[in-house]
Amino acid sequence: MMLLTRGWEEACDGFRDHFAARRIPVELIVRDIATDMRRVAGLVQEVRQVRPDLVYVWGTGLAVAALGPWDAVDPAKHITGVPVVFNIVTDPVGNRLIRSNTDPGRPVTGTEYIASVEVQMRAMARYRPFTRVATIFNPNESNSRSVVAQARALLGDNLVELPVALNEARQPDPASIPLALLRARQAGVDWLYIPPDTFLNNHRAVLTRGALVLRLPIFAATERFVLFADGLAGLVSRYYSVGAFTGYKAEQILRDGRAPESIPVETLTRMSYLIRMESARYLHFYPPVGLLRTAETV
């Protein structure tokens, strides 16, 4: 059973295609909460009734809600008794989904999909050295908060944090994105860093186009802000490849009989450095020639 946060996308393609390439017959039961976390309880109940051989969970927020902390699982609220693989999850240790990457501590394994924040900052400096960086994020998303906290630990006061405003229902307000961009411009930052963030991804066109107008170069932790919007650059794991890697971990459980808790949580060993050349031309913010030898231009 595949539990999705925002519909079928490239990581799901990679997961499905892994089984096809390996000629492993599977039945995929797909359920999508369409970013509505109120639907998680119903999914947990359905898993309990259907008892699939394996559950695939997409996204940090859904994984946290459906699985609970590794050391404080509530069988009345969380998925238990079924092997689980997670995908497109940020900092599973910090979000208490697992005890450690090498020892999950529960019948759960999966993949991390972003490079470490330190590596991302080095990659950003390789394009253009910086002093001050701004970051826009949804304060309701644990994955975003985790990455921003790591960036703060590295950059200290040189990080300008710009959480999007919440409305009366305590939900992020898309109308606040332009104001956050303006504040970043006024702060005189060298880069605008976008962490993994479902809310911002859903509004990535407004975010990245607004940044271009204000001459703010965007460096993103995930591919969609560059590949399918106007972000300038990013050091990313390709969603399709992460999905296929998660499929390999599922194969180890379903076909090889390995216990999920014995399978380490890993990232891809190869990342993609994406550069959107149209944005580079618009900003007059061209990458060094040496970087172009290894980057992937889009």
Can you offer a commentary on this structure?
The two termini are 34 Å apart. The chain has a seven-stranded mixed beta sheet, sandwiched between helices. The chain has a five-stranded parallel beta sheet with strand order 2-1-3-4-5, sandwiched between helices. Helices cover 38% and strands 16% of the residues. With 298 residues, it is α/β, with parallel strands linked by helices. Helix 9 links the parallel strand 9 and strand 10. It contains twelve helices and twelve strands.
User: How would you classify the helix and strand content by structural class?
Assistant: alpha/beta
What Rg is obtained from the alpha carbons, in whole angstroms? 19 Å
| Sheet of most strands | 7 strands, mixed
By DSSP (H or I, 4+ residues per run), the number of helices equals 12
Question: What is the distance, rounded to the nearest whole angstrom, between the alpha carbons of the first and last residues?
Answer: 34 Å
N-to-C order of helices and strands: EHEHEHEEHEHEHEHHEHEHEHHE
Work out the helicity level. 25-40%
Spans of at least 5 consecutive residues whose pLDDT stays below 50 are: none
Task: Give the mean pLDDT.
Answer: 96
Number of strands: 12
What share of residues are in beta strands?
15-25%
Major sheet strand order: 7-6-8-9-10-11-12
Shape: globular
